[in-house]
Amino acid sequence: MLKLGVTSTVYGRERTVAEAARLARETGFHGVQLSMAFADAAFYPYRPDLDLGTLTPELRQSIRGAYTDLGLEVFCVSAYTDLAQPYGDARAAAIEYMKALIRVTKDLGANAVITEAGTRGFEAFERCVEGFREVIEVAEAEGVYVCVEPSYRQAVPNSYTAAGLIEAVGSEYLKVLLDPANILCYDAVDRMFEVLGAHIIYAHAKDCVVDEKGDPRFPSAGEGMVPYHRFVELLLEHEVPALIVEYANMDNIGRVHGFLTSILADVLGS
User: Fold this and answer.
1) What range defines the domain where residue 203 resides?
2) Are 91 and 81 in contact (CB under 8 A)?
3) The CATH number of the domain where 74 resides is what?
4) Which candidate, 190, 113, 98, places its Cα nearest to that of 144?
5) In the structure, how many helices (H) and strands (E) does the chain have?
6) Rounded distance between C-alpha atoms, residue 234 and residue 244, angstroms
7) In which residue ranges of the chain is pLDDT below 50?
8) Contact yes or no for 114/202 (Cβ under 8 A)
9) Are the C-beta atoms of residues 16 and 40 closer than 8 Å to each other?
10) Using one digit for the tens of pLDDT, what is the confidence trace for 250-262?
11) Do 123 and 164 touch, CB atoms closer than 8 A?
């Protein structure tokens, strides 16, 4: 059964962990992608001076419990960093941050971290492969998946490049979080699953509108060109466990949840 989740930042970054968990439960979601940008636990987004040493075992248990005590799952943890950036201290610090986050992911109740591939540019894909190889060593040791999220402006801009990354890294712990809106300007939804279906373990729900120049913008799910009926069919067919809402806010999250619930009911009933 496909579960509906939400990124914790949808409810605002001024909320405490407990407040964000309560709102996710009240909206009707089954779980969260944990982006730790809370008033009382600020460990996201990544920045060079971020110290994960203060994310103590007690705090990790408290964050996890805020959700699980309400019957919510923590599906995955946001760890977005640029693994394709040029060599140097900034790259090394970003990689060490991701390694540290992987080591505490299970304590937070999740089985995966989610990251971008990183910026495009000369030899960016090669650096991206090297970066993923570094963090995958820790992921394999910890039994935690690392999910790359392909995006049209990054070093992994489409389905085929994502498949190439997975082949080059060569680990069963490198998976995909599929956000069709990110690559709809390059790939049809069916092609995404034809190429990546075996590697997708999570998915995002937002939308995409492409202008006459081919440039996309990203409204909330149900407000653009993503063929959600077909997308949900393919998620169910490939037994992807969770579809996670992002690019929504307090004003429209109820509508987005209702839209996705309706699509899921329609697909299951057809």
Assistant:
1) 3-269
2) no
3) 3.20.20.150
4) 113
5) 9, 12
6) 15
7) none
8) yes
9) yes
10) 999 999 999 999 9
11) no
